[in-house]
Amino acid sequence: MAMYHAEITGWGKCLPPAILTNDELSQFVETNDEWIQSRTGIQERRISHVDTSKLAEVAGARALAAAGLTANDLDLIIIASCSPDTLMPNIASKVALDLGAKRAAAFDLNAACTGFIYSLETATRLIQAGNYRHALVIGAERLSWLIDWSKRDTAVLFGDGAGAVIISRTEEKLGLQEAQLGCDAEGRDVLAIPDFGTSMDRFNPDPGHFTFNFVGREIFRRAVRGMGSAASTVLERAQLSKEEIDVVIPHQANKRIIEALCDHTGIPLEKAFVNIHRYGNTSAATVPIALCEAVEEGFIKPGNTILSAAFGAGLTWGACLIKWGQRVTPVAQSDAGLPPCEKTAREIMQNAIDHCTGVK
Question: Of 14, 82, 113, 292, which is the active-site residue?
């Protein structure tokens, strides 16, 4: 039997147009641009006027065009998200419907910020089993909908967006080569939205104000340990030295965590692609958005070996090694796009801001 691999053949992203800068954020949250940038590296983030599934659909359509495929070529759609439009049915089925992917199996996967790496390995292993040829893997989030805008530690961090890749069966040794996934479950309460889902009070008169647990120091400590350990494991398994890594695509959670990951692995920070300043933490979407932009900007070159790592609520963690193919330009461009946005970022979120902060 042939040994199959799953090459990345298409890529696409979708960022909503409304931008919320640090200065605008400081008008209703007790913070300022210097405080945010010095601690996180974030300058601005995107606020979506559409549901998560629409962001995912557009990113997916662009990835399909880049691969030169149609939706009917897809055998599988996996959407990594912790902020779906609906819990039932899954939003992967909506994306399949809207794209016209009539043959594809479709499901959501929630591993929070690590969701894209979890999904990429899942899709790769299914392709390697031989029954699937093309898979669409999307990380998509609308975390702005879940934010408590009265809490500075979380209000400054998160943004909205989606990124997608097409992976296609090949006998060449390309695509995901190694992965290590894990979960530091003992720390799951340090990063959580506990008042959401079936554990919440169904008849709470104030159901729209979610608690967002975020213990920053503990998250930082566990993130560096989890991502660093996973990265070391995949390098050892692949029998690669740090010098053989061409590009690092880290989860864009915090510039300090990115620096600590590079320090832990001994890989120069210059090899890490960083775009957190533009988008903030888009959770499961950070890795695929960064991957897309790294290709678009020429940061990823033909034949590159890529290390990616992420850490998220759960506390999930993971890392993977990807071997890029020869093509770094899309086969075609999609005309898919979002509907027009006629509001500013603050206007989109004004009801939530009023509710959380009392500031108008």
Answer: 113
